[in-house]
């Protein structure tokens, strides 16, 4: 489905009903809005993991502006702040009361901006493999961060250096995921990235714009203390993209944060440890509430 929002079209899809029958009565289920990472990907890779929650919650997947099935506005309008504003308008348009926003990786960047810019629209945030900044984060305990170099061969490191160095093209990105993709997950889940990437599309122009324009300026660290909403932070022990210390920084800084580490996961913990993911999120949904005055 497409919604006309802020000068473009935003694609969204809904999984699961909004009501659930329990002992002969209908109850309203919580809503989770799923925001994909990348940036440059669409929501498709989230469905396998988030879909497991559709009995507990209604899931609304969103392709952020410039991604997937959404419109292609001027790239200069595709800022993290504007993406957050788009999601806020979608929430209002659909009449959703206090949804929980799930943000994976850079989708978590958008989720944090949403919590900062539109706190009264959101009931809580679930951040998976995300970070408050792309700058290096010092660990309070000095534990080493997971490293691609510790696991990957020289060919993978060369492919990573090429993309992170700014050479972003259809060919270089394809080579990157062939060489580096297996190391996004824990060793026992090495084939998972390829499976998930088959469910998503890639916008090279958006990826290039994110890497060159958006990521370098992203840093909400100093503003995290103002977030009063419940925030569940999920980190994978083997995640070198957004290492556990990044999630820990979020959980420690917000006013109502909870951190859960997935010991057998990398960047895609929702698909690497699905049973634990479902249990943790269901507990969060059942036991968290935004302040009554919000």
UniProtKB/TrEMBL annotation:
| Boundaries of every AB hydrolase-1 domain copy | 30-274
Question: What GO annotations for molecular function exist for this entry?
Answer: hydrolase activity
List, alphabetically, the InterPro entries matched.
AB_hydrolase_1 (IPR000073), AB_hydrolase_fold (IPR029058), Carboxylesterase_BioH (IPR050228), Epox_hydrolase-like (IPR000639)
Q: Which Pfam families match?
A: Abhydrolase_1
The protein's UniProt keywords, in alphabetical order, are:
Hydrolase
Q: What is this protein called?
A: Alpha/beta hydrolase
Lineage, highest ranks first: Bacteria, Pseudomonadati, Pseudomonadota, Alphaproteobacteria, Hyphomicrobiales
């Amino acid at each position: 489905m497409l919604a006309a929002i802020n000068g473009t079209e935003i694609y969204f899809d809904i999984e699961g009903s909004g009501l659930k029958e329990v002992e002969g009565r209908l109850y309203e289920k919580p809503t989770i809005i799923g925001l994909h990472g990348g940036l440059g990907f669409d929501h498709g890779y989230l469905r396998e993991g988030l879909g497991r929650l559709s009995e507990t919650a209604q899931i609304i997947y969103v392709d952020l502006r410039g991604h997937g099935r959404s419109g292609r506005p001027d790239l200069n309008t595709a800022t993290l702040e504007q993406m957050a504003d788009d999601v806020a308008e979608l929430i209002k348009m659909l009449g959703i009361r206090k949804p929980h926003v799930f943000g994976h990786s850079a989708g978590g960047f958008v989720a944090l901006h949403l919590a900062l810019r539109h706190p009264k629209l959101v009931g809580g945030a679930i951040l998976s493999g995300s970070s408050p900044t792309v700058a290096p984060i010092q660990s309070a305990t000095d534990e080493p961060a997971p490293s691609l170099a510790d696991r990957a061969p020289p060919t993978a490191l060369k492919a990573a250096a090429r993309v992170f160095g700014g050479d972003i093209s259809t060919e270089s990105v394809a080579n990157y995921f062939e060489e580096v993709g297996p190391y996004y997950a824990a060793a026992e889940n090495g084939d998972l990235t390829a499976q998930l990437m088959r469910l998503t599309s890639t916008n090279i122009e958006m990826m290039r714009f994110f890497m060159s324009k958006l990521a370098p300026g992203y840093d909400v660290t100093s503003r995290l203390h103002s977030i009063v909403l419940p925030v569940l932070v999920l980190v994978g022990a083997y995640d070198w993209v957004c290492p556990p210390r990044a999630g820990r920084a979020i959980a420690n800084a917000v006013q109502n944060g909870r951190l859960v580490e997935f010991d057998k996961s990398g960047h895609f913990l929702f698909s690497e440890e699905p049973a634990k993911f479902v249990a943790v999120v269901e507990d969060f949904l059942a036991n968290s509430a935004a302040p009554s005055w919000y």
